[in-house]
C-alpha cells in the first residue's frame, strides 16, 4: 500500500513538475538568458490559457490550437519587447527595479482586461480525454495531467536544440553571455533579444493551453504561479534550459510527497523553501554556471 | 440623529435599502444578489411601494474584501441614511459588521451569512437563507442524516483551507461524533489544489462509508475529475456534502455527467416536492436578465434568496406600518412570512426555525447542456424529509456508472 | 504644508541654503500640527464614516512610508509588503487572544516580529542581486499565508473574531481612537523616514542604490546597511498592521495578505516619488483618497486598471514620481 502510494505520488509529482517546467520555460529564456525579470510571464501564460478556452469553445483542441496561437504570442512578445526597450532599456544603465515595477503594472493591466472581458469566473476546456487515466501496474496517470505534462519535454528539447544548433539560437546564448562582443561580430543584439523575448512569449501560449487542461483557471491564476515559476528557473540555474525540466520535476515530486505523506496544507510552501534555500546556499542553481 | 433624517425623508420620499455587493474580487460570482434584489424592488414599486413610498436600493461594490466593510456600511448608515440594511455576502464579510449593527441597533437581513448572528445575538437580524438554528454545526446535518439512514459508520472529512469549508468540517466532526460514527480520515488542503490523486488514495485506504467534502469551486472540479480518474473504492456510499460550486451553472455545465452520484447541498432544486409557481416565475424572469448580463444562467442558489430578503423587508415594514426597527423586528419574530422559497418563521436570533438546506444527489446527467438541470430528477432531494423526492443510490461507484 | 512648499523646501534643502536645524524644527512643528488636527477632527466630527475611511487612508500613508525605506532609499523592491503587514496583524491577534494585550504591547511585538522577518529575508537573499530579493518577497506572501492557514489557534483559513480591549474613555469611541493611533503611527513613520534620509544611513543607502560596487569601494558597509533597512522597513510594515485587529475585531488571511494592499503600498511611493519622505505621503494621500471615493462610484476593476496604467506611465515617463515632476518644474522656473 505504501509502495503503491509512493509510486503514484512520484508519478503525479513528475507530471505536475513537467507542467511547472512548461510554465517556467519562457521565464528561463527571458529572465535566465536575457536577464529581464518578467514577473508578468505567468500572466502571459494565463492569457494563453484564456485564448485556448475561447478556441476550445469553437470545437478546437486546446493544445493544437495553441500552436498557431504561439505565433501570435511571438509577435505580441516582439511588440511588447520593443515597447519595453524603448521606454526603459535605452534610458541607460539597466535598472532592474524599474523593470520589475513595469512588469508588475503590465500584469495588473492584463489581469484586469481579462476580468473585464471574461469575468472573474472559472473557465475550463472540454476535451475528451479528461476524466480517463492510463494505468501502468499500480500507477494511475490521469490523461488530464499526462497530456499537458508531455508538452514540457517536447518544448524543452526543441528549445534546447534550437539554442544549441541554429545560428539565431547561438546568437541568443551569446547575447546572454556578452552583448557587446556580439555586436562586434556584426549581429544586431537588439534583434536577437526581441526574437528571444518573442520565443519566451510563444511558450506561454502553449503552456497556457496545457495549464487549462489540468484544471479550471481564472484571470488571477498567474499569481499562484509567480513564486513557483521563479523557483524553477533559479533552482535550475539561470539560463539552463534542460535544468528547467529537472528543477520543475524536483519541485513537483517534493510537493507530491509532502502532500501524500505529510500534509497537503504545506505543499504551497515547498517551492518557496526551495527557492530560499537555493538563494542562500547555492545561488548559481543546480545546473547553472557560477556567476 | 433620527429627528434629522425624518424631516429629510418625509412622506413619499423613497425607502432606502442599503447593501454592498461583491461586484469584483474573489466572490464576484455572487453578484447575482443584485439582480434578485432589483427584481424584487421592481415588483414592489409596481405594486405601489411600501407604505405608499417607493423603494430604492443603495449598493456599493465591496470588492469581496473584509477591509472595505466597516467604512462602506458606515457610509450607508451615516451618510446615505438608509432605512434598512442587507448584509454583504457570507459570514466572512458580515463578521466585522455585526458588532456595529448591534451597537447601533440597526435592522438587517443576513445574506448567506452562515451562523452570522450566533455570537452577536442581535435581535433585529434575520437570515434570508434557510440555514436553520445552530447552523454552524447543523446546516449540513442532512448529509449525516442520509448517511445514518444508509448505515454509514466510517466517515472521512476533507476540507479546503477556506473559511466556509473549515466551518463546515468542524460541524461535521461534531455531528459524526453525536451519531456514533468514526472519523477515519481528516485532512485539509490548500485552495487551488488541482490534483487530488494522493488524497483520494489515502481516503480509499481507509475504506470509509461516507466522505464529507467541503471544497471550493476550482477544487470541487479537480475532485470530481479525480473521482473519475483514480476512483475512491467500493466502500463509499455517499460522497460530497459541502461542495461549493455545484450550485452554479458554470461548474455543472463543465463537469456534466462526471457529477452523477455525487451528493451536495443546495437551497433550491426544481423537484416536484419543492417547485412552486412563484419560484418558477421568478427564475424565468431572472434567466432573461442573466442572459443579458452574463450571470449564472440557472440562478438556483443566490438570486431567489435575495428576493426573499426583499420579501422579508416588505413583510416587516408593512406589518409594522412604519420604519420603526423594533416594530419591524417584532413582526418577523411573531408572524410567519410567505416567501417564494417557502414559509419562513424565525427564532430569537433570526434563524429560520426550520432548516431547509437540501442534500441533493446528481442523477441521469447526460452531456453538458445546462438546461437539463432545470428538469426534475437531475438533482434528487434526499433530505430534509419534508422535501424528499427520492432515495440515495449507493454505492457511489454504482451511482456513477449508471 | 502644501505640495509646492514641500517641493520648494526640498529644492532648497538640496542646495543647502537653510540650516538643517531650522528645517527639522519646521518639520517637527508640522508633525505636531497634523497630530493636533487629528485630535480636533475626532472631537468636531461625529460622523463615524470619516474615521473608518480616514483610518484606511492613513494606514496607507504608514504602509507606503515603511515600504519606501527599503524600496525607495535602497532601491530594493519588496513585492510582499503584506507578508510583513500580515505578520503584524496576526502577531497582534495572537496577543489579544492569548492575553487581551493592550495596543502598545501589540505594536511593539509586531515591530519586533517584522524586524526579525526582515532580517531573515535580507540575510538569505540580499547577498546576491537585488532582483532575487524582489522575487523571494513574492513567494514570501504565499509562505506566510500557508503558515497562518496551518495555525488553528489563530483561526486558520476561517478567520478569527476577537474582542480587543476597548478604547480609553477620553478618545470618544473606538473609531476615533483607532484613527488617532494610526495617525500617530503614520506621523512617527514619516519622521523616522525623514531622519533616515538625512542621516548617514540615508547617504549610505543612496550611495549603494546608485552603484553598489562603488559604494562598497568607498567603504560603505553595504550588506549591513541593506540588512538594517530591511529590518526597519519590515518592522514598520508590521507595526502598520498591528492596530487592524482593534479596528475590525475580525481577521482572516485573505485580508491580512490582500494583494490590493501590496499593490497600493508599492504604487503609492512610485507615484508620489521614491527619493524623499514626501513622495510616499503624497502618493498615499492621493491614491487612497481617490480609491475611497472611487470604490463607491466606479467599478473596482477599472480602479485596478487605472493603478496599473498609472504605474506603467510613471515608470516610463516620470520615474521620480510627482515630487520629481514638481521639482523639475520649479527648477526650470528658477533657472
Automatic annotation (TrEMBL), chain A:
It is found in: Cell membrane. It is a multi-pass membrane protein. Signal peptide: none annotated. The keyword Iron does not apply. Keywords: Amino-acid transport, Cell membrane, Membrane, Transmembrane, Transmembrane helix, Transport. Its main location: membrane. The chain crosses the membrane at residues 6-27, 39-58, 64-87, 99-120, 140-163, 196-217, 229-253, 265-281. InterPro entries: ABC_transp_permease, BCAA_transport_permease. It comes from the Bacteria. Belongs to the binding-protein-dependent transport system permease family. LivHM subfamily. This is Branched-chain amino acid ABC transporter permease.
Automatic annotation (TrEMBL), chain B:
Belongs to the leucine-binding protein family. It comes from the Bacteria. The keyword Signal applies. InterPro entries: BCAA_transport (IPR051010), Leu-bd (IPR028081), Peripla_BP_I (IPR028082). Pfam families: Peripla_BP_6. Residues 14-348 form the Leucine-binding protein domain. PANTHER family: LEUCINE-SPECIFIC-BINDING PROTEIN, PERIPLASMIC BINDING PROTEIN OF ABC TRANSPORTER FOR NATURAL AMINO ACIDS. This is Amino acid ABC transporter substrate-binding protein. Keywords: Amino-acid transport, Signal, Transport.
